UniProtKB/TrEMBL annotation:
Residues 1-177 form the N-acetyltransferase domain. The keyword Coiled coil applies. Pfam families: Acetyltransf_1 (PF00583). Residues 129-156 form a coiled coil. CDD domains: NAT_SF (cd04301). This is GNAT family N-acetyltransferase. It comes from Campylobacter novaezeelandiae. Keywords: Coiled coil, Transferase. The keyword Signal does not apply.
Length: 177
C-alpha cells in the first residue's frame, strides 16, 4: 500500500532514500560524515516546506513495514523548496543545484534490497506519474549516466531521455514521461 510518509518515520525513510541519493546526501546536508548528513536530512524531513519534507514523501508499506520510499514534488516550486536547504548551506558557501525544470519531479526513489523485483518501484513511479497528471505536468527525473539498470526501468515504463545535466561532478540523464 502506498501512503503519505509520517513525520515520526524520519530516520527510517531518510536512511532508505539516502541509498538512492548516494553522495547527494553530502551536498544537500553540507556534511562530510554519513551519520551527520542523515541527521541533518532528518531535520529537514520533519519540517513542512522543503524538498525533503515528509509532505513530499510517500512510502510503500506492507505488513506495517516500509519497503520503499518516494520523494516527489512540483518542479515549479523547487527554488522555494530549496530555500531552507540553501540557508543551511550558506555558511559553507555552497548551494543546492537545481535538478528539475517545471515538470513534476521524481527526486528520489528507493526500495529495500529484500523487496526488489516485486514491481514496487514501478508502482511508486506510476503513483508519481498520476500526481504529475493531476497537476497537468510531465513527470521528470535524473539518473546517473552509468546506471543502466535504472535507465532501463524508466525507459520500460515510458520515460525518454531529454538531455544530460552535470551536477556535483556527475553526469545525469534528464528523463521525462
Amino acid at each position: 500500500m502506498i501512503r503519505k510518509a509520517k513525520k515520526e518515520e524520519a530516520k527510517e525513510v531518510i536512511t532508505l532514500l539516502a541509498k538512492a541519493m548516494d553522495d547527494m546526501i553530502y551536498h544537500l546536508s553540507g556534511c562530510n560524515a554519513y551519520n551527520e548528513a542523515i541527521d541533518v536530512l532528518c531535520k529537514f524531513y520533519k519540517q513542512e516546506n522543503n524538498r525533503l519534507s515528509y509532505n513530499n514523501i510517500y512510502v510503500y508499506e506492507q505488513n506495517q513495514k516500509i519497503l520503499a520510499a518516494l520523494c516527489c514534488y512540483d518542479g515549479a516550486l523547487a527554488d522555494e523548496l530549496d530555500k531552507p536547504l540553501n540557508e543551511n548551506l550558506n555558511s559553507l558557501n555552497k548551494k543546492v543545484l537545481k535538478e528539475c525544470e517545471n515538470e513534476f519531479y521524481l527526486d528520489s526513489i528507493s526500495v529495500e534490497e529484500k523487496a526488489r523485483g516485486r514491481g514496487i518501484a514501478k508502482e511508486l513511479i506510476e503513483y508519481a506519474y498520476k500526481k504529475a497528471l493531476e497537476k497537468n505536468k510531465k513527470l521528470s527525473l535524473i539518473v546517473e549516466e552509468y546506471n543502466q539498470n535504472a535507465q532501463n526501468l524508466y525507459k520500460k515504463i515510458g520515460f525518454k531521455t531529454i538531455k544530460t545535466k552535470t551536477l556535483y561532478g556527475h553526469i545525469y540523464n534528464y528523463m521525462e514521461k
